[in-house]
Write a structure and sequence with these properties.
With 285 residues, the chain is an alpha/beta fold. The protein has a single domain, classed as 3-Layer(aba) Sandwich (Rossmann fold), CATH 3.40.50.150. The protein is 41% helix and 16% strand.
Length: 285
Amino acid sequence: MNDSNANVRNVSDTARWVAYFRARETERADALFRDQFAERLAGERGFQIAHTLPEGNKHEWAWATRTYLFDRFLLRGIRDGADVVINLGAGLDARPYRLDLPSSLRWFDVDLAEILRYKNDILSNEKPKCQLQQIYLDLSHKSERQAFFQEVNRTARQVAVLSEGLLIYFAAGEVGSLSSDLSASRNFHSWVVDLASPGQLKSMQARTGKQLGEAGAPFKFGPQEGPNFFTPFGWEPIDVQGMLKTAALLQRAPKELLSLLPEPDGIPGEYPWTGVCLLKRTATV
């Protein structure tokens, strides 16, 4: 595969890039998680993208830490009673196959048809640990996502929502609209999101923004309000974990970044911060 063919073509290609990092993490003796499917899911294209984008194969610690924190918050939600998981922008996430999940758990992978069909082909001979259903849906289509959320809400007791690596590709108004649509469903109890500060967003845009923008996948979302952005839309942040701080605790943070610790209290603003947030629904319907 030559360099011109290895460029990111669209937002779905970023899922192959993420799978590359999960494969790299899985190779480590001290891996924070094991994703035995990631290398196959990334494919040659995922590895080529990682080595073609500027700094595309760097910051492994951040990608691994993000996945680790999402795993933790998800399993916490299931222990707290979630009987349904909605994975928005699921991409090449193999959690239904790699995590120890209740067989009775209903899991919906939601994403564009192209990337979910690709995942289906790769994992066609694998058996998920739970009741997995794939939903082909463009989340920018408001009426279609609302109809899906309402149908799940009707048949669920308690829903946990994930959106790993998704919101950064949305403008603030789009994130607000999605947040409101989710909180309108009474049985949607928790939502796990990852977040960048405005300062970190600018840094990410400078490093890889041009190439991703040309592919129709620019980085957009880094709210000045930090996790409190979601409060007016019916969601309260109840647990916020900075990725650098978490990586340091796990002895995975790069030495050159340790000078950024401790992380600031409250809203990070221009500080180069990324984190994973557990939100609880507060809206009354």
